[in-house]
Structures are given as C-alpha cells and as structure tokens.
Amino acid sequence: MNIEYLKYFAELAKIQHYGKAAQALNISQPGLSHAIKTLEEEYGVPLFQKEGRNVSVSSYGKELMNEVEEILDAYLRLEERAAGLRTEEKTVRIGSVYPLAPGTIPRMLREFGATFPFIIYNRLTPEIAEGLQKGKYDIGFCSDLLKSDELEYYPIRGSYIAVAVPKGHPLEKRDTVSLKEIAYYPQIMFSKTSGFRKLQEQLFAAEGISVKPVCAAEEIEVVAGLVENGFGIAVLPYMDIVRLHNIATIPVETSLWKSKFYIARRKYGIRSEQEDAFFQYWRN
C-alpha cells in the first residue's frame, strides 16, 4: 500500500477531474493516472468511471472511500505525533533524588555546559527507576543501585554523615568530630515520620549514646534552618541543601553509614547528541 497513492485517490475523488486534481497535488497528470491504475490493479476493481471530461467514483471506490479516509487520518495523526516527539526530544527530562536536585544537578549541568532545555523532577529512587523504564525520564540520579537489566548506572559521588552546626560554634573549625564529642550539645533530630530519624538513632545507639532531642522536624531544610537559628546541632547525611544555609558541616567519624549516588538511564533508546554527551561526561 502506497500512502501517497491513497492521497491521490482521495483528491481525485473530491475534484473528479484528472487535470485539476494533478494540479492540486502538484504532480503530472500521467503520474496521477499511473497511481490510480496501480491502485486498481492492486485491488482488482475499477475505482473511477469516466463522465465526459470528468470522472466519478465507482461503486467499488465508494466502498473503499471510508477506509481510505480513516487510513489517511491515522497517518496524519502519526505524522503529528512524530513531530511532537522530535520536539520533546530536545527537552531532557531528569529525575533526581532530593539531596542532589537543588545544588548538585544544576552545578553538573553548568559544568558540562548544557545548552539543551531540561526539566528536573524531585522523586524517590523507586519512582526514578520506574520512570526511566517507562520512558518518563531520560536521565536519573538516584541513591541506590537500580537492579534492572533495562538500565545502566554508574556511581558519581559518595555521601557521608556530618554534623551541622551554626556559624561561630566551637566545633565549626574542626576537620572531623566523633559522635561522643557532639553528644554533649543540644540535638535537633528528624521527626519520627522521617526516614532519617531511624538512621540518627542507629548512629547514636552504635556508640552507646542516648540522645533526647531539643526539637525535631521532618524535612532537612527545616532542620538546617533550626541549626542556623541556634536551636542546636544536627547529625545528618550530608546533602547539598545545607549549603543554602548559614551553617557549617563537619564529617562525623563513623563507618556505620555509607552511601553513593548514581547516574542512570535506559540501556537502549533514542537520544539527542547533547543528552548522550552529558551522560557520558558524568559516567566517567
């Protein structure tokens, strides 16, 4: 089936004149005649009948006309959708875990010199994995290995446990501190609804330290804000978000918790050159 020939058939059926139809289609009249003859030979029935200088659609042509129009409509929708995909391809969709989204990802894009448009979505690692596999995201930044044969992923940086202290605090200039050293200061904890609260409790419990928090908050930016305003100090996984506050972070001497962040994408897919170059730049 030749889609162009079907277009010729529909146009001739509408105009009912070979010369005028050929002119409207911007092709030669012999070319139009050849196309219609080819269709008639393919379907085994006459599609048009002569009426003086004009033609009219035969009974067989009328039977096929609805199907031809449906095929042409579907083809037009396909072309429009393909054009939309080409436009969407220019925008790189990035799914990122929250610790990396505010600072690390913008800095990585700037360092690479990205000129492509992009969208950054804050998501949890399982959502990123699902989104990558379903084609919702082009590139993902996650905090755990995504165990899927459909994805490729590479570590880009590690994380560590730090203590956040307000500027001017006695510990501010230290290179590292122990949990026992910081246990004497008022502690700001994550609320029990936060996944980080259990981590804090495990860290102190491993050292045999009992801590009673002076206050708690669910989100890390709120915890950082409380530290900044002098309510206490906080033990937390280091995240770029704390850099937005006027506080200092000092690595804590502990081997209980280690984490890595990864860049990930589908193993196979249609990619723009810039998107692929960005991924390759950071996977090395």
Write down the Rg. 33 Å
Q: How many domains would you count in the coordinates?
A: 3
Mean pLDDT: 86
Low-confidence stretches: none
SS-based class: alpha/beta
Descriptors:
WH-like_DNA-bd_sf; DNA-binding; WH_DNA-bd_sf; D-Maltodextrin-Binding Protein, domain 2; LysR family transcriptional regulator; coiled coil; 3 domains; alpha/beta; Arc Repressor Mutant, subunit A; 12 strands; 284 residues
Describe the structure.
The chain is of the alpha/beta class and 284 residues long. It has helices at 3-15, 18-25, 29-43, 59-88, 104-112, 125-133, 179-182, 195-206, 220-228, 273-283, and strands at 48-51, 54-57, 92-96, 118-122, 139-142, 151-159, 161-166, 188-190, 215-217, 234-237, 247-251, 259-266. A five-stranded mixed sheet has the order 4-3-5-12-6, with helices on both faces. The chain has a three-stranded antiparallel sheet with strand order 10-7-11. The model has no long low-confidence stretch (mean pLDDT 86).
Short description:
The chain has 284 residues and is α/β, with parallel strands linked by helices. Helix content is 42%, strand content 21%.
Provide the fold topology.
Layout: H1 3-15, H2 18-25, H3 29-43, E1 48-51, E2 54-57, H4 59-88, E3 92-96, H5 104-112, E4 118-122, H6 125-133, E5 139-142, E6 151-159, E7 161-166, H7 179-182, E8 188-190, H8 195-206, E9 215-217, H9 220-228, E10 234-237, E11 247-251, E12 259-266, H10 273-283
Parallel strand pairs: 3-4, 3-5, 8-9
Antiparallel strand pairs: 1-2, 5-12, 6-12, 7-10, 7-11
Helix pairs in contact: 1-2, 1-3, 1-4, 2-3
